[in-house]
Amino acid sequence: MKGTMKQKQIALIAEHRHGVLTPGTLETLSFVRELERALSLTTVIIILGKSIEDRACDIAGMTGTDIIGIEGEDLEFYNCEAYLAALEQPLVELNPTYVCIPHSSMGYDLAPRLAIRMKASCITAVEKIGKEGNSVTFSRSQWNGKIILEMESLSARGILTVLPGSWPKFDEKPGERGLVTTNHTAIEVNKSRTIGIKGAKRTDIDLAKAEVIVSAGKGLGSEENLSLIYKLSKLFPKSAVGASRAACDAGWLDHGHQIGITGKIVSPKLYIACGISGSTQHIAGMKGSHMVVAINTDPAASIFTVADYCIVEDIATFIPCVIENYHDLFSLHKESQ
Amino acid sequence: MKILVCIKEVPDSEGTIRINDSCRRIDVEGPYRMNRFDEFALEEALRIGEKMPVQSIDTLSVGPARAESTIRKGLEMGASRGIHILREESDDISAFETASLIASFARNEGYNLILTGVMAEDDMRSQVGPMIAEILGYPSASSVIHEEIDPEGGMLFAEREIEGGMRECLEMKLPALLTIQSGINRPRYPALSNVLRARNQEITTIPSPTLQQPEKREQIARLRYPETPSKGIVLGGNEREKARALIGILHEQSIL
């Protein structure tokens, strides 16, 4: 038998675009399933929007999880102030032990403020759950993945954000359909208002469709070496050029090339990281690639932790060497035919 | 307009970091410098100051005595005043504690705008900025990549970076807090005149015990290194051998 809403100890705040759950939300759902099993807890999903009831019913069927839908005029887009106001009443009633949110533009905007408001602990960008007796720890990376921090909550309530790419997207066969409760809220928002969302600049780079992505990082050294990245990518038929945030910020490449949490999340057949140290944000955006080759002068670079093939070389000399040898082998091959 | 920019000192990536035997602290060998994201925040404040009359651009850091050099760097870039909340070094300082200290200072200063970097390069928590805003009751937006201010109307327009290269557009009432994303501007090199001015400029030092300090709500259980440094195969040999090995692997996988 299903319990009442009051007995849920985990609240997952869903992120959606026009009613469609984001991949980060589906990953967070897998995270809460693991947390439920570790501590024998149950979950309720909270979804906010202008008109969300139909979608809430779909999600209750798809996940077998109870849903609270919160509808309000000011909830068409995510807005921190509006979300905080709309969540207050339901969270006071639920009094959950954990509130889980994807570590997305919504999650890292909302979680710290929610933690202050709920007098809760706040652990952001969680990558792993550790079980210790009756309690749990939450691992997160620091120093660009060179150090792992195992954190524990000391409060009765904890706010957690879940790093993208750390759990698979939820794909379990649901059991019984979840219950849906819809609340209408007439919240008052007067300090900030989300006006709308501006689309990405149109570019001719299609990172999503590329089978091979050659990405440039700060280790490129200078803009002049960018031609090497393009030359290397041209060896592959369906390829595109990606970049780390640092390479885009340096002005070498447009931000449309950026791969990572705030850029694009990709999973090509082959990902070649050239001079990329591998920030947590970047790795979260590419670790779903089928094969990863990393080239970097620093053998301790974090990118090597996710690479299938690690090459400690300077890309300024290594890429020309690959291209030259490729042409040598290719022409030899031709002659022998 | 009175602006506060919160800056943090972080170890320079050229130094080395090691987990202390206690497994609760990191030992740093090497110099410290200003968190890059905070450089973008300070630069943005200076650019606002060039566009409209600004009473003061204050720069503040919470940290041990060593953090003074990062505050001085802020003055060299062009900040009007440096504030140092002197906080003894400790194993585990939560974002909540840092935010409480800053908010406790800022509460009586009447700032119209507070800027921070979107995160610190070392601990990457992205928490201090929004927490300050919540404590002070300011509206906030994180990961801001563009902003326009209408001081007479008491309004601010901001664009924040969201997934897939899109931007969320917001209108906010001043006073407000923004956490600044990298790439919003190109931080300047200090002008010689500012370097000279900053050299002898007084920095306001406030011992942290005089400010509000909250109870810890989370703590470090332990620090560790990533489990497997690499699951990957390290290609050996000289450059040419590595290049040929790579071509061979990609050819075998029918990629090349």
Structural class of chain A: alpha/beta
Beta-strand percent range of chain B: 25-35%
What's the CATH class of the largest domain in chain A, please? Alpha Beta
What is the number of beta strands of chain B? 15
Overall CATH architecture of the largest domain in chain A: 3-Layer(aba) Sandwich
Q: Which architecture of the largest domain in chain B does the CATH hierarchy give at level 2? A: 3-Layer(aba) Sandwich
Strand order of the largest sheet of chain B: 11-10-9-12-8-1-6-7-13
CATH-level-4 superfamily name of the largest domain in chain B = HUPs
Tell me the structural class of chain B: alpha/beta
Q: Please state roughly what percent of the residues of chain A sit in beta strands, choosing from under 5%, 5-15%, 15-25%, 25-35%, 35-45% or over 45%.
A: 25-35%
- Average pLDDT, all residues of chain A: 91
Order of helices and strands of chain A, N to C?
EEEHEHEHEHEEEEEEEEHEHEHEEH
Q: What is the CATH topology assignment of the largest domain in chain B?
A: Rossmann fold
Q: Span from first to last CA of chain B?
A: 59 Å
Could you list the spans of chain A in which at least 5 consecutive residues all have pLDDT below 50? 1-6
Distance between the termini of chain A: 71 Å
Provide a count of the helices of chain B.
6
Structure description:
The complex is a heterodimer of chains A (337) and B (256). Chain A is an alpha/beta fold and 337 residues long. Chain A has 2 domains: 5-184, HUPs (Rossmann fold), CATH 3.40.50.620; 212-336, Rossmann fold (3-Layer(aba) Sandwich). Chain A is built from 8 helices and 18 strands. Chain A has helices spanning 23-39, 53-63, 80-94, 107-117, 226-233, 245-249, 280-286, 315-336; strands at 10-13, 16-17, 20-21, 43-49, 66-71, 98-102, 121-126, 128-132, 135-142, 147-153, 158-162, 180-184, 192-198, 212-216, 239-243, 270-274, 291-295, 309-311. In chain A, helix 7 links the parallel strand 16 (270-274) and strand 17. In chain A, helix 5 (226-233) packs parallel to helix 8 (315-336). The longest helix of chain A has 22 residues, at 315-336. Chain A is elongated, with a radius of gyration of 23 Å. Chain A starts with 9 loop residues before the first strand and ends with a helix. The model of chain A is unreliable at 1-6 (pLDDT under 50). Chain B is α/β, with parallel strands linked by helices and 256 residues long. Chain B has 2 domains: 2-210, Rossmann fold (3-Layer(aba) Sandwich); 226-256. Chain B is 27% helix and 32% strand. Chain B has helices at 36-51, 68-77, 95-106, 128-136, 192-199, 239-252; strands at 2-6, 9-11, 16-19, 26-29, 32-34, 56-63, 81-86, 113-117, 140-150, 155-161, 167-173, 176-180, 203-207, 218-224, 233-234. In chain B, the strands form 3 sheets. A 9-stranded mixed sheet of chain B has the order 11-10-9-12-8-1-6-7-13, sandwiched between helices. A two-stranded antiparallel ribbon of chain B has the order 2-5. In chain B, helix 2 (68-77) packs across helix 5 and helix 3 packs across helix 4. Chain B is globular. The termini of chain B are far apart. The mean pLDDT of chain B is 94. Strand 18 (309-311) of chain A pairs parallel with strand 15 (233-234) of chain B.
